[in-house]
């Protein structure tokens, strides 16, 4: 199936990786906050950083839209919605009415409240026309906001981004060797994946276990050192973790990142992926062990920008 994925602007780079890796998709067209891709693995309900998905009909220039709508295949009632992406020059309401009028003149029934067919036109640099098949339920991520958990810590990854990171690895057995409050473990567990968390501090391990139980998940978390993980070689399909930031890293010693990377490589299966978050560039360290498939950025505040490394063990 070929679909249009309307990606979140929160982290478009990570959103694109999520679609392509989770669905084993092949990108055929790329635009701002849009990817058009072929895929067979229908796990759309797991997507986090995609607003919605539409079955692709055509991609065209803005001037060609009217001709497209003269032959657009419609069965049953329909409505047209324009999604403009960084196009302040465009009057979306006027364009919706214009395109809806074309369908109405063809004899199509227009139903704005409960149509059989939702026609989407995503207007970015180009126009991408499709039929809506999936919308991401965003309320679930608000319900799992870190502030609503029994155990809290500052500066944690939000659930929506955490789920996307787990999805980017596309693995079924997930390790977080520095699990903190358990964001990645919670998201993995709620998607039906196997997971294990490790943390160096007993207080954090107990807090993470409390959070997991709060969401009805097993407390699969143990106390341990990310530099010397208590697991056999090639145990896990994927690793997702958020490294302690610069000041916190010093509490573990200057070699935390280097040693943890070696251990992550050791316990990861061949062709397994790791998504690693850190607040500084470590391309050289990661490149010694992994193939870096991508690197995404997220500005948190003035003094903190996260780097998301998508790594493959080859």
Q: Can you give a write-up of this model?
A:
- The protein has 314 residues and is of the alpha/beta class.
- It is built from ten helices and 14 strands.
- The protein has a seven-stranded mixed beta sheet with strand order 2-3-1-4-7-6-5. The protein has a seven-stranded mixed beta sheet with strand order 10-9-8-11-12-14-13.
- A hairpin with a 3-residue loop joins strand 6 and strand 7 (127-135).
- Helix 5 packs across helix 6.
- The two termini are 29 Å apart.
Rounded mean pLDDT score: 95
Strand content: 25-35%
The dominant shape is elongated
Low-pLDDT runs: none
Could you give the count of β-strands? 14
**Sheet having the most strands:** 7 strands, mixed
List SSEs in N-to-C order: EHEEEHEHEEHHEHEHEEHHEHEE
Instruction: Work out the radius of gyration.
Output: 22 Å
Helical percentage: 25-40%
Oligomeric nature of the chains:
single chain
For the largest beta sheet, what order do the strands appear in spatially?
Answer: 2-3-1-4-7-6-5
What is the element layout, followed by pairings?
Elements: E1 2-7, H1 12-22, E2 26-31, E3 34-38, E4 50-60, H2 65-70, E5 78-84, H3 92-105, E6 117-123, E7 127-135, H4 139-143, H5 159-169, E8 173-176, H6 183-190, E9 194-199, H7 202-214, E10 221-223, E11 236-242, H8 246-252, H9 256-267, E12 268-278, H10 283-287, E13 291-301, E14 304-312
Parallel strand pairs: 5-6, 8-9, 8-11, 9-10, 11-12
Antiparallel strand pairs: 1-3, 1-4, 2-3, 4-7, 6-7, 12-14, 13-14
Helix pairs in contact: 1-5, 5-6
């Amino acid at each position: 199936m070929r679909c249009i994925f309307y990606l979140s602007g929160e982290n478009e780079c990570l959103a694109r990786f999520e679609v392509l890796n989770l669905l084993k998709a092949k990108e055929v067209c790329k635009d701002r906050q849009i990817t058009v891709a072929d895929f067979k693995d229908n796990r759309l309900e797991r997507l986090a950083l995609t607003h919605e998905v539409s079955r692709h009909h055509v991609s065209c220039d803005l001037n060609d839209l009217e001709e497209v709508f003269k032959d657009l295949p419609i069965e049953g009632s329909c409505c047209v919605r324009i999604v403009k992406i960084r196009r302040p020059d465009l009057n979306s309401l006027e364009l919706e009415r214009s395109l809806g009028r074309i369908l109405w003149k063809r004899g199509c029934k227009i139903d704005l409240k409960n149509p059989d067919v939702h026609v989407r036109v995503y207007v970015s640099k180009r126009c991408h026309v499709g039929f809506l098949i999936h919308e991401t339920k965003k309320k679930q991520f608000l319900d799992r906001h870190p502030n609503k958990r029994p155990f809290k810590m500052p500066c944690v990854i939000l659930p929506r981004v955490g789920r996307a990171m787990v999805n980017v690895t596309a693995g079924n057995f997930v390790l977080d060797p520095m699990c903190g409050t358990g964001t990645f473990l919670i998201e993995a567990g709620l998607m039906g994946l196997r997971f294990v968390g490790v943390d160096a501090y007993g207080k954090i391990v107990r807090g993470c276990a409390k959070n997991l139980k709060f969401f009805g998940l097993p407390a699969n978390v143990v106390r341990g050192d990310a530099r010397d993980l208590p697991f056999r070689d090639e145990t896990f399909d994927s690793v997702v973790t958020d490294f302690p930031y610069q000041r916190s890293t010093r509490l573990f010693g200057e070699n935390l990142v280097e040693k943890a990377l070696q251990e992550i490589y050791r316990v990861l299966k061949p062709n397994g992926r790791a998504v690693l978050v850190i607040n500084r560039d470590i391309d050289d360290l990661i490149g010694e062990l992994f193939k870096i498939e991508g690197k995404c950025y997220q500005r948190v505040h003035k003094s903190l920008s996260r780097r998301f490394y998508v790594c493959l063990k080859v």
